[in-house]
Amino acid sequence: MTESARLAEEAVADVAERLAEYVVRYEAARDSRAVFAYLYLQLTRSLATALSVGDPVFRDPSWVADLAESLAGEYFAASDAMDAWAARTGTTPQTTVAPEELPHTVPEPWREVFAAISGGRSYVLEDALFSMMAHITYDLPVAMRRMAARSNVTSHIADFHLMNDVLGIAIDFVQDELASRYCWWLADLDRIFARNDELFSNYGIRVSRGMAWFNFSRLTDPAAADDAERSIRTSTGAFIQQVREPDWWALRVATRAGRLLVPERRRWPSASSTP
């Protein structure tokens, strides 16, 4: 392993360690946010492993680590802002909240997610899908825009797509891990979300991250930045609405019936089960 790869692997491993702390805290509180934190932890560990073994061979491992850290920073900031508000208001994970009740220190896509999975009444697959939507369609282009202020992001597109390969290949394993840890009946939930869970796949990871790169490019173009900002702010809320209340009436009825027939079926790991 080169020195650059070793330092990059250590940096990504540090991100994973911090994510593990969020998983432990959220699981102890029976907070639905634990599901995505655990998913994110496993994907980050997969990236750290890829850097460690040198497969694939990244051209600039330090840039890969920088992106991983910058992207995680967006997630940590949103989560910490939500935690601070909850502590200040006495809101618990079992409290149902509306997006408009949440503070603007939390970005709009994450307000939509936190509201949608609040109250402990969401499905495990919703916890994963909604958060992935916010993290990829909003956090990722924003993180890359921040990075562009200090380095040339566009010259690293090859490494970006190698990251997509690593994460896309890992997602099947992560699905199994989520099912084992939180919901043995994840396959049943797939039937409810059959038209909306493409994001939770190898193909979906690649396509959504490719779209994030496109939106990053729009954000850095003065002529397109306003439309891009509006798009990445509102796409998560629109996605959640489409999952919960599909436009086609027959599908809407079928979705509602499916939610009645398939309860949440959530389980929580024991306190001794380390992530």
TrEMBL record:
Pfam families attached to this UniProt entry: DUF5995
Protein name per UniProt: Uncharacterized protein
Upper lineage: Bacteria, Bacillati, Actinomycetota, Actinomycetes, Propionibacteriales
